[in-house]
Specification:
The complex is a heterodimer of chains A (112) and B (880). Chain A has helices at 6-23, 30-40, 49-61, 85-111, and strands spanning 28-29, 65-71, 77-83. By secondary structure, chain A is an alpha+beta fold. Chain A has a three-stranded antiparallel beta sheet. In chain A, a hairpin with a 5-residue loop joins strand 2 and strand 3 (77-83). Chain B folds into four domains: 3-71, no CATH class; 142-329, no CATH class; 346-521 and 750-878, no CATH class; 541-730, no CATH class. In chain B, 55% of the residues lie in helices and 16% in strands. In chain B, the strands form three sheets. In chain B, strands 15, 16, 17, 18, 19, 20, 21 and 22 form an eight-stranded mixed beta sheet that branches. Chain B has a six-stranded mixed beta barrel with strand order 4-5-10-7-9-8. A four-stranded antiparallel beta sheet of chain B has the order 14-23-13-24. In chain B, helix 7 crosses helix 11 (305-322), helix 14 packs parallel to helix 24 (749-783) and helix 18 crosses helix 27 (843-869). The longest helix of chain B has 42 residues, at 346-387. The chains are: A alpha+beta (112), B alpha+beta (880). The interface between A and B is medium-sized, with 25 and 26 residues.
């Protein structure tokens, strides 16, 4: 199975965390996820479709997400993703590790 | 997620590929449309909105590819492409494919066949609930050594069953046979008698009706029976209304309360037609010293075998203190029932498995050789693909896929061969194999074969694949011009050497078995084998009073048999020789100091009539044979055999001496020759014979064997024998009528089968390796056509060319033979101890077979070499 080069790993990990967080309140389709991340980040983060959909499928493959087809707000059928129990635990773990990481980065930046 | 589960999911997705693609497309399109709508809502005209959205979205196909990657479908696509490519490539060389499939089919087929026997016999021999928790309990005599395990007496069984806490549901059984009498005539059926908790203990549920209720094995209860499925179908037309019917077994009405599936089998029995509650005569019920029962129980939850054994020993010690007269020196032991059931056949099956594994290895070496030869031809293609940018891993993968396709097709051929082979095999198997579910190509075997074929592909495919993709492109582009390289040639030679060595190992193994089998057949059984006819006579218990059995039935019958024209003598015996050692009883020499009770001498005990030994051809060495009326004599006459005389009366004068058996004094009136009671491969045991007309012996004769010796051909006596038994005892079936030659050949049938199988496998190995050798030499010839042409143009005779090539092949053969002899000695050591009674380093066998294999191998090099010598020099030189 194709392994992405190391440089993207950090980026991908972050995207995974954002996707999981976005789905925490309830199910959403891919477009909804990208919209919400953009809104919540005050338009700082723009999600590239080319990484969003592989990420969604990978997270489902790993068992963190479940998906189903159902009518969307405009009546068209769309694929909705939601967190699985495993995904909820993964969200907690990744949130913690992100907080540790960003705190550490901040300490370094502030001390210098 | 576990890797296999994940792969399964990927495969399933691959199977529903169209739906996956459609959904992916819909998902991405939905995103794009939403984007467009939102742009329109923000005031962009539709056309512009679409353009903007599409530019932002990027390449749809690239996104899809990323998703397919994530879902594992890319690998699947590659695999599919490789498989199609492999099939196309293989179809272009039908000759190669045919030879490879034949090799693989033989190798894999032999493995599948042997595995299906092993699967049925060693892996799931017993149709009981969690059989690994079942143990068989034995009484033991520690002074006789650790291998001695005997049956359990009924009082001991009851004490064990009550006091054991670590083994639950201890159930007792006794295997036998009974007479079933009905409108269709009398029939002897195999039965087992069991204690009432039998069905619960083994976890067996009847197909119909019920098993025994608690207490149904006590004396005085209504007689009930559970039928076996095959009897139910055969005699009762599979009628469910058989429940509640009364049938006559051994002269007594029994109510049918259940039917048990034919999947139910019992250790040591080919089939069970009826299961009866243990109905014991009072003397058996109370005889603590009469050991005749088997006992099976279930280890309690979490209990180890060691703890159960400690528990058993404690109880045995208590019994020893409470009942010193019967229990002194006796202990008890439990063993896993699977061990006790399969211990006889396990070694030979494992040897056969080893043999077929070698055959498969040889087949792999052959196919690897073919692939190497082929890869030389394909070098330009592979090199070109490499030059065009295919990675080495990808190229190796592609070549391995080709091997896998080949191996799978080989497995299909192999399964076909195994199916045919198994039909022949199971027909040849005697009753001795404990196989509950029957032997056949079931799911387990298919799975095994699939796994094996993948492994096979790796074994024969990896080296050639690595070989042909080695080195850098430039070097190989240059080499492609000149065909094969040195190291490839060495590899192929090594494969041939290995094949010859492995074949010799197999041939020697088979040769040693053949030789030991012939030695066995030449063993003097102690009895006459020609002109003897035997037949079992089933006499129901209770049909005759003990005192009437011989005057009213047996004696008139023997007299009528002796009157048949052509019959020289006739007699009967409680159990024929060459069957089993079973009736082991203790005795003491009268007047001798009492022996240590733990080492009391024991002998086989048989009941015989006047004329029995004359019919069997066993000489009366001293004194006389039994006479009519001996059974009523106050002297209690007995006969003993030479083995017993040697043990106690080495100076000779045994006649007139007395033995004490079960408290009675018996006088020795004659000494007879030794016979091998337990089989040709077992030494003669000490034996004591009792007269058939002693009323006390009547109960030992309910399954006696009639023995006739005649001038006439034995089969011709079968008709009169049947007529006489029918006229004198119409409701007592005569069964298993066979000549003594048949009795003996049946006793060695399993050995013979394993011998035939091993010989077949060794022959396969030899043919495979000879063809491999021929292949290598032909290839050498093809490679050196030009050289040979030049040699001949320069004046070499065809003979010189042949000698050159044969010498080259001969060197490989010689190395292979040397390695093979070493391997055979090593394997012989391992196998000899497993099979027993085989002389491992038999120089005649080893040298003879090495010479034979060498000759075959040289022939295999000579034939292609001769073809080379016919080359037209001019054509050969021009060829390149």
């Amino acid at each position: 199975m194709g392994r992405p080069p190391a440089r993207q790993e950090l980026l991908q990990g972050t995207l995974d965390l954002l996707v999981l967080k976005t789905l925490n309140p309830g199910p959403l389709h891919g477009w909804g996820i990208s919209q919400r991340i953009q809104q919540r980040s005050r338009d700082v983060l723009e999600v590239n479709q080319g990484s969003l959909y592989p990420a969604l499928h990978r997270l489902e493959e790993q068992g963190f997400l479940l998906s189903e087809w159902r009518p969307s707000e405009n009546g068209r059928r769309a694929r909705y993703y939601r967190l699985s129990a495993l995904g909820r635990r993964q969200l907690e773990a990744e949130t913690r590790s992100w907080e540790t990481f960003s705190a550490a980065v901040r300490w370094v930046l502030e001390s210098a | 997620m576990l890797a296999p589960a994940r792969w399964l999911k990927t495969l399933l997705r691959g199977a529903r590929r169209a739906r996956f693609e459609q959904e992916l497309d819909q998902e991405l399109r939905f995103h794009l449309d939403m984007e467009i709508e939102s742009l329109i809502a923000r005031g962009h005209p539709p056309d512009e909105a679409r353009r903007l959205a599409e530019r932002a979205f990027g390449g749809v196909e690239r996104h899809k590819d990323s998703v397919r990657d994530v879902r594992g479908l890319t690998v699947l696509d590659d695999l599919g492409r490789d498989v199609r490519f492999a099939v196309r490539t293989l179809r272009r060389s039908p000759g190669f494919v045919a030879v490879a499939l034949l090799c693989l089919g033989l190798g894999i087929g032999a493995n599948a066949a042997v595995f299906s026997v092993i699967d049925a016999v060693l892996l799931r021999p017993l149709p009981y609930a969690s059989p690994d928790r079942l143990v068989r309990a034995f009484e033991t005599l520690p002074a006789r050594g650790p291998g001695w395990r005997g049956a359990v007496s009924f009082p001991n069984y009851e004490d064990f069953a009550q006091q054991l806490t670590s083994i639950r549901d201890l159930t007792a059984f006794s295997a036998g046979s009974s007479n079933l009498v009905g409108a269709e005539g009398a029939e002897r059926i195999p039965t087992i008698s069991v204690s009432a908790n039998f069905f619960t203990a083994l976890g067996v549920r009847p197909l119909l009706g019920r098993g025994f209720a608690s207490g149904e094995d006590r004396p005085g209860m209504n007689r009930v029976v559970v039928l076996g499925e095959s009897l139910w179908r055969r005699r009762f037309g599979a009628d469910p209304a058989v429940l509640g019917r009364s049938i006559t077994i051994d002269g007594q009405p029994h109510e049918v309360i259940g039917v048990v599936s034919s999947v139910f089998t019992f250790p040591g029995r080919k089939s069970v037609d009826a299961i009866l509650p243990l109905d014991l005569r009072p003397e058996l019920r109370t005889g603590r010293g009469t050991h005749f029962l088997g006992a099976i129980g279930r280890l309690g939850p979490g209990v180890t075998l060691e703890r159960a054994n400690a528990d058993l020993r404690t109880i045995a010690r208590r019994l020893e203190l409470e009942h010193p007269e019967a229990q002194t020196g006796r202990s008890a032991e439990a063993r896993p029932i699977l061990d006790t059931v399969v211990s006889d056949v396990r070694p030979i099956l494992l040897v056969l498995l080893g043999a077929v594994a070698l055959v498969l290895l040889i087949a792999c070496a052959n196919v690897a050789n073919l692939l190497l030869a082929r890869s030389a031809g394909r070098q330009p293609e592979v090199t070109l693909r490499h030059a065009l940018g295919a990675s080495r891993a990808r190229l190796v993968g592609q070549l391995l896929v080709e091997s896998a396709v080949l191996a799978l097709a080989g497995a299909a051929v192999g399964l076909l061969l195994a199916w045919v082979g198994l039909k022949a095999l199971t027909a040849g198997l005697s009753a001795g194999l404990p196989a509950a579910g029957g032997i056949g190509l079931d799911g387990n075997v298919l799975l095994f074969t699939l796994g094996l074929s993948m492994l096979t592909a790796l074994i024969f495919g990896l080296t050639p694949a690595l070989q042909s993709t080695r080195g850098n492109v430039h070097a190989r582009l240059a080499e492609a011009e000149h065909g094969t390289r040195g190291n490839q040639h060495r590899l192929r030679s090594a494969l041939v050497v290995g094949e010859v060595a492995l074949s010799l190992v197999l041939l020697v193994g088979a040769g040693l078995l053949v030789r030991s089998f012939h030695t066995l057949l030449r063993t003097d059984p102690g009895i006459r084998t020609e002109g003897v006819l035997t037949g079992h006579l089933a006499i129901p218990q209770g049909k005759f009073k003990n005192a009437e059995l011989s005057p009213r039935l047996l004696r008139p019958m023997l007299e009528a048999l002796r009157a048949i024209p052509g019959v020289e003598s006739a007699g009967l015996i409680s159990m024929l020789p060459i069957q089993q050692a079973w009736t082991n009883g203790e005795y003491a020499v009268d007047g001798a100091p009492p022996p240590d009770p733990r080492l009391a001498p024991a002998a086989e005990m048989r009941i015989t009539s006047p004329g029995t030994f004359a019919s069997l051809g066993v000489p009366v060495l001293e004194g006389r044979d039994f006479l009519e009326g001996d059974g009523l004599s106050k002297e209690r006459p007995i006969l003993v055999n030479r083995a017993l005389v040697r043990r106690h009366f080495p100076e000779g004068n045994a006649v007139g001496r007395r033995l004490v058996i079960e408290g009675n004094r018996h006088t020795i009136v004659g000494v007879v020759g030794d016979v091998r009671q337990a089989g040709l491969d077992q030494p003669p045991l000490a034996e004591i014979d009792f007269p058939y007309d002693d009323p006390e012996n009547a109960s030992w004769l309910n399954d006696a064997t009639l023995v006739l010796h005649g001038r006439a051909d034995p089969p011709a006596l079968a008709g009169p024998l049947r007529d006489i038994t029918r006229s004198l005892a119409s409701d007592q079936p005569l069964y298993d009528v066979q000549t003594m030659e048949e009795v003996i050949s049946r006793s060695v049938a399993n050995r013979k089968l394993s011998l035939v199988l091993l010989s077949v496998f060794a022959f396969m190995a030899m043919v495979l390796s000879a063809s491999g050798l021929a292949g290598v030499i032909s290839y050498l010839v093809a490679q050196r056509t030009r050289e040979i042409g030049i040699r001949m143009a320069l004046g070499s005779e065809p003979g010189d060319v042949i000698r050159l090539l044969v010498r080259q092949g001969g060197r490989l053969v010689a190395i292979g033979l040397v390695l093979g002899v070493l391997g055979a000695l090593l394997a012989g050591k391992l196998v000899g101890s497993a099979l027993g009674g085989i002389q491992v380093a038999d120089p005649v066998v080893v040298a003879g077979l090495a010479g034979f294999l060498g000759a075959v191998a040289l022939l295999a090099t000579y034939l292609p070499a001769r073809r080379a010598a016919r080359i037209d020099p001019l054509l050969a030189i021009r060829a390149e």
